[in-house]
Design goal:
Order of helices and strands: EHEHHHHHEEEHEEHHHHHHHHEEHEEHEE
Radius of gyration: 24 Å
CATH topology of the largest domain: Alpha-Beta Plaits
CATH class of the largest domain: Alpha Beta
Shape: globular
Strand content: 5-15%
Strand order of the largest sheet: 10-11-7-12-13
Amino acid sequence: MKPTTKDAYKLMHEGALALAVVEANGIRIDEDRLNANVELIDQKITEGVEALKDDRIWKIWVKEFGSKANLSSRQQLGYVLFHKLDFKAVNLTPTGRPKVDMASLEQLGLSWTTTYLDVERYKKLKNTYLKGIQREVVGGYVHPSFNLNTTRTFRSSCNAPNFQNQINRSSLAKYIRECFIPRKNHVLVCIDYGALEFRVAACFWKDKAMVAYANDSDLDIHRDMAAACYLLDCEQVTKRIRFFAKNQFVFPTLYGSYWKNTARRLWAVMLNEKLELDDGTLLRDHLAAKGITELGDCEDRPIPGTFEHHIYQVESELEERFPQWASRKKVWWSRYLERGWFRTMTGFVCRGVMKKNDLYNWPIQGPAFHLLLWSLIRLVGWCKTNPAYIVGQIHDEIVGDVREDQVENFLKKAKQVMTQDVRDHWKWVITQLEVEAVVCRANWFEKEGVSI
């Protein structure tokens, strides 16, 4: 990424200064809750391991591998399950070996593998997330570093700890997010753009149908695609289902993936996250009632009646709905092959060897983040004379720590900057921009929606 205009350089310069302020502000941590959650998860891991080792499967495992028996070895696990115990493999690798990834183990339907996967999730929760936060606490706060020079997609990155990678939609999110709390007499206010990358894609591809879709407040591309992918009515789509459809179908498809990959991701997340409808019906059972009981796992063309075939049809319908996008991305690829570079809508030149996914991703994801960065710079400036702090950002979301009596003023200012001022600054934004907000009074996990 190289800025080629004064405005592009100014954005990076002012953005780095604003993010330095965000880092200095820091976000408050409930250390007692954090330490208690580490102990609680430790106990869950211990209990889970004891249950696993009290089962005949572990006894066979030890008999086979002796002192080298290792619960963390997926290779050993696959050998025990599919060779010693003769369970039927749900999925196979290209070389014909049984798969032992989380989705495949989930599909086995064994209580032992369910416990095994729970233990693995608890280990990651403790070692990657909770311990990662513990290491960085100083004086009751963590001060994540937000960087503008480490990712090729033009988004920011974050470390020490990675504030942008804290679990959100999983059932384990509570153990992490309840540790982040507001300052005294303050609340956390989270403001995020609605379907930002889809709107920026409409601006970039200039697909008339896509622009019209983005400008219709009654439509929601992520909700609508979730409904299409999982054969739901729009009213049945929960926030979690919408979230995973957004990240496993909409974005990958916009950025050059295709039906086989998106189908497998959607199927895996449905099983791993045990996605369900509001009435408690598992999404897997809902699809079965609609006649889809298998992923398909084909190597060439999708097999009718499988989930892969269904997603193949959904992808085809999406291209028919937005025909200019479907045709212009082919022209965009050909033009890149001739020139070897392109300029983003925010003034950055990208050159060098790129895959198709990069070529479709970078012109959209970069400018989408730049909309947020431009807005964040203005809000950091506003906070200098108001009782509020910007304490984090997550690609299309800004997190503020605001005195309770100033929430309304903060929301009003944020909406003005993020939906109107930024459009006045960049004329290439030809769609409406929308934002949503939640207030967290006790901690980052307990949220309540607010009008903005």
